[in-house]
Design a protein that fits this description.
This protein has 225 residues and is mainly alpha-helical. The chain contains seven helices and three strands, in the order H-H-H-H-H-E-E-H-E-H. Helix 2 crosses helix 3 and helix 2 runs antiparallel to helix 4. Belongs to the NSE2 family.
Length: 225
């Protein structure tokens, strides 16, 4: 098998991995719709189970591709390695998988659980009827949400939240900027004015499905007016 064939296969797998991540976003959307409609808990549990299965598949594919890249790099340095290619790949693949300690830390699983919990908490607060909570809700409602990405200065499409400083950016914009800075051997600092976060990394970014739903609802409302 030629190296070009390997690279082509890896590219196809990367596309499949993108489809898996899209599926996880859809599962999250369905779960949030279900929670808002006060659906059954067992349905929510099934959706969470689907998220965990997708997370495992996504993780396994990442390990698989990293193992292939590592082994093929060894082949280019030492052609004799090709004689033990299968064994080398299996060893590397298993080693990478063993480092995945907890699928619950997968960014989309974390986003799924946090979003569901947030909506449930909001519903509990609204059912409480407490005057203080009502005043707080009015304040939140009156405040104008910011849907603009601090990098592009346009409305976000796929918002992600920084775990460290809690600021939001559009996913494609922030990842492109991080990659650009890394190529120049520089750190990427949070672009929000006054933020002291000097080093933003891809692993710091967490999808925000609830904000994404709000942005989509905002767009739909604007299209009607």
């Amino acid at each position: 098998m030629s190296m070009s064939t390997v690279q082509s296969t890896l590219s196809t797998l990367k596309t499949c991995q993108g489809d898996i991540n899209t599926a996880m976003d859809i599962v999250t959307e369905v779960a949030l719709d279900l929670v808002e409609a006060q659906g059954r808990d067992d349905d929510q549990n099934k959706l969470q189970g689907m998220m965990m299965e997708c997370a495992k598949l996504d993780s396994d594919m990442t390990c698989f591709m990293e193992a292939v890249q590592t082994v093929t790099a060894q082949v280019t340095q030492d052609p004799d390695v090709i004689l033990s290619l299968k064994s080398s790949f299996q060893t590397e693949f298993e080693a990478l998988k063993s480092r995945v300690s907890d699928l619950n830390s997968h960014t989309k699983v974390v986003a799924f659980k946090n979003s569901v919990k947030k909506i449930l908490d909001q519903e509990k607060q609204s059912e409480g009827g407490d005057d203080e909570e009502q005043d707080e809700e009015i304040t939140v409602t009156q405040s104008q949400p910011n849907y603009t990405c601090p990098l592009t200065q346009v409305e976000m499409v796929n918002p992600v939240k920084n775990r460290k400083c809690q600021h939001h950016y559009d996913e494609s914009a922030v990842l492109a900027m991080i990659q650009r800075q890394q190529k120049n051997h520089k750190k990427f600092r949070c672009p929000v004015v006054g933020c002291g976060n000097q080093d933003v990394n891809p692993e710091d970014l967490l999808p925000d499905p609830i904000l994404k739903r709000k942005i989509q609802a905002h767009k739909r409302q604007n299209s009607k007016t």
